[in-house]
């Protein structure tokens, strides 16, 4: 029989591990902030390093506690740190900063500022819905390293040059990163304009209502690989969504070619499997089209039958008037360029009743990091059943509100809704 130790009892008592005690015991200096940059907690190491008490920090705005040195017109520490923290709060992505000079006012000598150097890392703490609940600000002080370098050279000009080298290189790296972010933002804007031009609103489908949405990713480059298409023909409609692997202008270009090819194929072939077969052959000649996922559904209005085929794409959802939701997942094949040759793509059918809702989407709508896809599919089914009585435009907005976390997503999302 194993004897339980004191540590065993501490771990199993109550709801589990005492994470507050773990937080306080961390050897590094760590503070927790709200997304509005207000202190909610700081461990003992942070208090000791900063020379502040808990009462002087908790509940106060970060930069009221640690403003820039008013006597240094070239001070950039506050501006750089605020930009990093706000970026983490907006994107939900970790940000490791370059070495920063950030002077701190001496606690017992007001108006006297100490030259200090820091290496910060800012990390999001996510809520269950994927939004940013807190910001974890971890910082290591490297002031003594800078001073040691100066001391090692006995104050010579060369020693001073070596001492400032680390700081200068860090500043240069930060400036390069800022320029890269600006370039990425410009590419994102161009790609989004291209995306908008290639994904117009659907034309009227007789008396049937339809709505489309495209939601770009929060990240600066992970956009423009998703598309949708609706082709209205006598007695039937072909609807499709697809997702190109990649991002930016390159993905937008590939997306445009594949969307046009599938739209043309859907007008002349007998069903969705044949359309995807033609698209797969065409994709072999398009660089960057490999591993694209796409699903196509042909709607036969007179017989009230959906015929569908999928190339590695998440299954469309069919919501019946009574709120029952089923996924069209009986005809799934590998993505474009990933299936064996000389085999036919599968195709399946399902009947629908008037008043049902058909939803096609890309994975950005349902997938979340560290979460099984079945959870995302169930979340979609629940939201669809809950809002099924709404018209397609209102339903599209409701699904985006329910399924896209407030912080946004790291992959773009396309959505097509049809009232059958």
The helix count comes to 12
In helices, the fraction of residues equals: 25-40%
Strand portion, in percent?
15-25%
By oligomeric state, this entry counts as single chain
The backbone outline, from C-alpha atoms, is: elongated
Q: How much is the average pLDDT?
A: 80
Could you characterize the architecture of this molecule?
The chain is α+β, with helices and mostly antiparallel strands and 420 residues long. The protein is 36% helix and 23% strand. It contains twelve helices and 19 strands. The protein has helices at 6-12, 19-25, 44-50, 54-57, 62-65, 77-91, 143-152, 157-198, 248-266, 272-283, 373-386, 392-403; strands at 29-33, 39-42, 95-96, 100-101, 104-105, 113-114, 117-126, 132-141, 210-215, 226-233, 236-243, 293-300, 305-311, 317-319, 325-327, 332-333, 348-351, 357-361, 413-419. The strands form four sheets. Strands 1, 2, 3, 4, 7 and 8 form a six-stranded antiparallel beta sheet that branches. Helix 11 packs antiparallel against helix 12. The model is unreliable at 1-13 (pLDDT under 50).
């Amino acid at each position: 029989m194993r004897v339980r130790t004191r540590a065993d009892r501490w771990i199993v008592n109550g709801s589990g591990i005492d994470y507050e005690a773990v937080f306080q015991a961390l050897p590094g200096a760590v503070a927790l902030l709200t997304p509005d940059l207000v202190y909610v907690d700081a461990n003992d190491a942070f208090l000791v390093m900063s020379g502040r008490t808990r009462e002087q920090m908790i509940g106060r705005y970060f930069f009221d506690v640690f403003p820039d040195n008013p006597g240094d017109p070239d001070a950039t520490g506050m501006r750089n740190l605020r930009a990093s923290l706000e970026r983490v709060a907006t994107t939900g992505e970790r940000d490791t900063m370059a070495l920063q000079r950030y002077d701190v006012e001496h606690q017992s000598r007001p108006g006297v500022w100490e030259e200090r150097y820091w290496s910060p890392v800012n990390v999001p703490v996510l809520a269950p819905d994927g939004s940013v609940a807190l910001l974890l600000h971890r910082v290591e002080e490297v002031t003594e390293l800078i001073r040691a370098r100066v001391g090692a050279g006995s104050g010579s000009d060369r020693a001073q040059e070596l001492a400032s080298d680390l700081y200068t290189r860090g500043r240069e790296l930060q400036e390069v990163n800022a320029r890269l972010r600006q370039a990425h933002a410009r590419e994102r804007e161009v790609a989004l304009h291209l995306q908008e031009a290639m994904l117009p609103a659907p034309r009227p489908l007789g008396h049937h209502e339809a709505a489309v949405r495209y939601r770009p990713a929060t990240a600066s480059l992970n956009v423009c690989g998703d598309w949708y298409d609706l082709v209205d023909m006598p007695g039937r409609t072909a609807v499709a969504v697809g997702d190109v692997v990649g991002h930016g202008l390159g993905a937008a270009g590939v997306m445009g070619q594949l969307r046009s090819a599938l739209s043309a194929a859907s007008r002349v072939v007998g069903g969705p499997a044949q359309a995807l077969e033609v698209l797969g052959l065409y994709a072999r000649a398009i660089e960057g089209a490999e591993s694209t996922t796409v699903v196509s559904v042909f709607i036969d209005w007179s017989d009230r039958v959906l015929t569908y085929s999928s190339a590695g794409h998440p299954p469309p959802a069919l919501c019946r008037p009574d709120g029952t939701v089923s996924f069209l997942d009986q005809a799934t094949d590998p993505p474009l360029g990933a299936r064996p040759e000389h085999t036919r793509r599968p195709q399946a059918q399902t009947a629908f009743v008037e008043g049902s809702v058909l939803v096609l989407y890309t994975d950005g709508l349902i997938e979340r990091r560290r979460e099984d896809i079945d959870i995302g599919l169930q979340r979609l089914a629940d939201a669809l059943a809950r809002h099924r009585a709404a018209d397609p435009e209102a339903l599209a907005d409701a699904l985006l509100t329910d399924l896209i976390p407030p912080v946004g997503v790291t992959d773009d999302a396309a959505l097509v809704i049809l009232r059958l």
